[in-house]
Write a structure and sequence with these properties.
By secondary structure, the chain is α+β, with helices and mostly antiparallel strands. It has helices spanning 24-28, 46-59, 68-81, 128-132, 155-166, 209-220, 232-236, 268-284, and strands at residues 4-7, 10-13, 31-39, 42-43, 87-94, 113-120, 134-140, 171-176, 179-183, 187-192, 195-198, 224-227, 240-245, 249-256, 259-260. The strands form two sheets. Strands 7, 8, 9, 10, 11, 12, 13, 14 and 15 form a nine-stranded mixed β-sheet that branches. A six-stranded antiparallel β-sheet has the order 2-1-6-5-3-4. Bound molecules: 4'-deoxy-4'-aminopyridoxal-5'-phosphate.
């Protein structure tokens, strides 16, 4: 089945969707994105992603080129057309394609480029990968200072992922001034006793939609949450570690820089949070 994608209001076979070589997303990484998970053919936390998208656009002085209602309709239509049961919808909005390359933004009436496509991932919500957990290495956080804006400048996280692979691991946790900021594409947590520790929100990290939901569920389940920086050394001594993201939900971390975390298996807190998150997300999916 040929994938149907969305480009500026049209639904097209993927090989017919073309974007200009002058597109600011291509030339300048001048664009923002969101990834919304799909479980049972329904969207998880669409509203959270839509709100963060609005914020990313606002922070970059970009107009909102598509209403929230139309965005939702397009997400649902792509899921339907591509028969997605488990997977996600990728959305990217760039500052459009002016007639030439220039550092200055193009006139405000330059139409934005809006792209959406689905990714089918059967078995996404199964616990096979989570039961095993992931291994991470630490790397210096060399990204720019506005990591709260979800831009498509993903080269450094991509390099981090490759460094992890080269070391026989799955991902990298980034460290700045001695403290973990986040994973290459996820928020990072450690657990000590009944306390979940994760870095506080600021411009230093992406404000994860899954993070917000998981911390809410943790508090509702009477777990203690401390939002503060933590070091790799503290993480290596923790009872558990895990990451969250829209595409991995809650994923245990069983090794950090070669040091085994806890008993090297999925921890009880991470397992419980994953279960609650998936249950509640399924109930609220639209
Ligand atoms: N941090 C970074 C750097 C990310 O790229 C992501 C995923 N896009 C996250 C955190 C997790 O955010 P979310 O839970 O909204 O997927």
């Amino acid at each position: 089945m040929t994938r149907t994608v969305y480009l500026n209001g049209e639904y097209l076979p993927e090989h017919e969707a073309k974007v200009s070589i002058f597109d600011r997303g291509f030339l300048m990484a001048d664009g923002v994105y969101e990834v919304t998970s799909v479980i049972d053919g329904k969207l998880i936390d669409f509203d959270g992603h839509a709100v963060r998208l609005e914020r990313s656009l606002r922070e970059l002085d970009m107009a909102q080129p598509i209403s929230k209602e139309d965005l939702l309709a397009a997400h649902r239509e792509l899921v339907r057309l591509n028969e997605i049961d488990e997977g996600g919808v990728y959305l990217q909005i760039t500052r459009g394609a002016p007639a030439d390359r220039d550092f200055a933004y193009p006139p405000a009436d330059t139409p934005a480029t809006v792209v959406m496509f689905t990714q089918s991932k059967p078995g996404l919500s199964a616990n096979t990968a989570a039961a095993k957990g992931i291994k991470v290495i630490s790397i210096e956080d060399l990204r720019w200072g506005r990591r709260d804006i979800k831009t498509v400048q993903l080269l450094y996280p991509s390099m981090g992922k490759m460094a992890a692979k080269a070391a026989g691991c799955d991902d990298a946790w980034m460290v700045e001034d001695g403290a973990v900021t986040e994973g290459t594409s996820n928020n990072a947590y450690i657990v000590k006793g009944n306390t979940i520790i994760t870095r506080q929100l600021s411009n230093d990290i992406l404000h994860g939609i899954t993070r917000a939901a998981v911390l809410r569920f943790a508090k509702e389940a009477q777990m203690k949450v401390e939002e503060r920086p933590f070091s790799i050394a503290e993480a290596q001594e923790a009872d558990e570690a895990f990451v969250t993201s829209a595409t991995t939900f809650v994923m245990p971390v069983v090794e950090i820089d070669g040091a085994q975390i806890g008993d090297g298996k999925q921890g009880a807190v991470a397992a419980r949070l994953r279960e609650i998150y998936l249950d509640e997300s399924r109930k609220a999916a639209i």
